[in-house]
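Anyone else keep sequences and structure tokens together like this?

Example one:
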Amino acid sequence: MRRLGDDPPPDLAIERFGDFDRLPIFSPDDVEPADRSRQQRHDTRLAWWLAAVRRAQVVLFACPEYAGGLPSAFKNGLDHLVGSDAFIGKPFVLYNLAPRAHHAQDQLALILATMSGQPLKEAFRTLDIGANAIGLEEWWSNPARTATIAASFTQIRRAVAASHARRTEP
């Protein structure tokens, strides 16, 4: 878990969750609803994940593709959302970090829509980061990458503003 804080752009708060491999295994058949609720409160990472998604105005997903699909730990994190109210009706954006790969993105879009998520397709982007992981400083130092993200964030801001306007209409 890491809060990006003042990293660009400064007007958006972005929280990153990368501890999917440390979440308890979700199994709707093995856990009674009362026990699931207790587990969600007592597992710090799981509680943080659910609370972060619940309070987010938009959820951004950048998921790697592994063996033609979603990594199992990532899918487990999504399964925990199904067992809660955190993601119902939540707008989401997908970032594909490998232009050659699309299977995980296709699966993720279907799964999130099935979970009652609302895709902000106009903000979806493909971002070629290459074969090596890069740090935030390198990420933001690339003008083409920054422009692509800025365009996506513009769409996200518009969607959030429109949502606020609909909620405040008489």
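And example two:
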Amino acid sequence: MRVLLVQAAPQPGEPAANAEAIRAALAAHPDAELAVLPEMFLTGYDLPAAAERAITPDDAALALVRDAAREAGTAVVAGFAERLPGGALANSVACIDADGRPVATYRKTHLFGRESDVFTAGERLLVVELGGRRIGILNCFDVEFPEPARALARAGAELLVTVAANMDPYGPDHQLAVRARALDNRLAHVYVNRTGSEAGVGFVGESLAVAPDGRPLLALGRIADAAAVDLDLGASPPAAVDYLRHVRPELPVELVTTHVQGASR
């Protein structure tokens, strides 16, 4: 599968302009089967302004992205601040197939820092078929936990995709976590982080495409960039390191403590 990593900074609070940026990226890489954009790319990452900027899945900006996907024949994964029925907000990821059809929306399940003051956490993980492949979607802080990626792998994901708005000083954390989640599950992993600054936060870029053995196949720097990578999906891992087959999640934990007779405080 040929995947386009679009590492860019959005125009804050300008969903239509950001949708046009997606259209331009797709047009510049017509051979891509899947394009991945950063966390909250359509609306910008400014927590105090999230309520003002949030959009619904039927917003005109997302309609533009669907049109762009259909025109290019490229599936799209892109983040946005979503207004839910009733007025609550979610940190969401739109998943649009190559025919322009909106297939699913993933709502971030692990909220970072002050995000929990703004957003409602999602209650389900998501494996979605895009471009004929089963893709497990993660959003930024999600990738720092082994469990969500493992659950996606167990559910049949062929590729892990993480969108992010990761900032200093956490760049090294994600560089390690992205490779680890690939190796943990023997799945290729595409990680797309944004660049630039917004609301006093500096974002680090450093997007990655990683092979199932944890090797980086494509690494972008800290400035805006877009590049495509060919991923070989669906191959079985070597039997000796097929971790999904070998792991034993049912094991109990025994706690053994030491007791010093006569000790007192």
